[in-house]
Amino acid sequence: MEYYMGISMSMASTTDTGVAVIDSFGKIILIDKLFTMKDIQFFMDNYSSLKQSHIAVSLPWDNSMLEGKWRVLSKPYQMVRSNENLLNRDNWTQRYSTRGCEYYKSLLDKGIDICRFELYLTRQKLSLSSYYKERTPADCKFLQNALKTEYQFEDIPPNMMPMAQLEALVGALIMRERANNPKNIKKIFEFHGIDVINIEEKIVTKN
User: Fold this and answer.
1) In whole angstroms, what is the distance from residue 9 CA to residue 26 CA?
2) pLDDT, tens digit, for every residue of 19-34?
3) Distance in angstroms (rounded) separating the CA atoms of residues 108 and 10
4) Which residue in 5, 119, 132, 153 has the most C-beta neighbors within 10 A?
5) How far is the C-alpha of 158 from the C-alpha of 180, rounded, in Å?
6) DSSP letter at 126?
7) How high is the pLDDT of residue 88?
8) Using alpha carbons only, what angle is made at residue 121 by residues 142 and 11, rounded to the nearest 5 degrees?
9) Region class of 21: left (phi > 0), else alpha (psi between -120 and 50), else beta
10) pLDDT above 90 coverage of the chain, percent
């Protein structure tokens, strides 16, 4: 039995990291939330089916404290390596957080199948993006309903789930797509020694 695990990595231990595991039939095996890197390492090191799992870990935004409101607002829109002479004080042009990178690279070196994914690009390709502001209650409810109706996750409860767990299911879905249709998966870049993947052609679900 093959398993597909998604990890919605948070940018700090003060917010929850979502973990979701589905099997080859699309049934939710496990869904949980963790906080510190020690929690994540303990879970992964004690997960009995780790070698049979295909893992996708999201890239969290780097929202470290910066000087100047304009730097905070413009950070997600900075082109990567657009100008080597640009003053990068306090590393304000760094788009993604490096939290957990060393541990995930160590899993890759041990032969574990692990990739990274960009959450919002993946949601677009899976037809799971909404018109609402990201991570608002309306966006959360939309994602939960879309996962339940479009991807037949019947185990999703009717009450509102934490957004991190729903985002983790998105990671599990991209790994299942890679297993079922590898030609539709492409490497978009590499982040600290691990491939960042996305779906080539947008998946249109059928009602």
Assistant:
1) 22
2) 999 998 889 999 999 9
3) 20
4) 5
5) 29
6) T
7) 55
8) 85
9) beta
10) 62
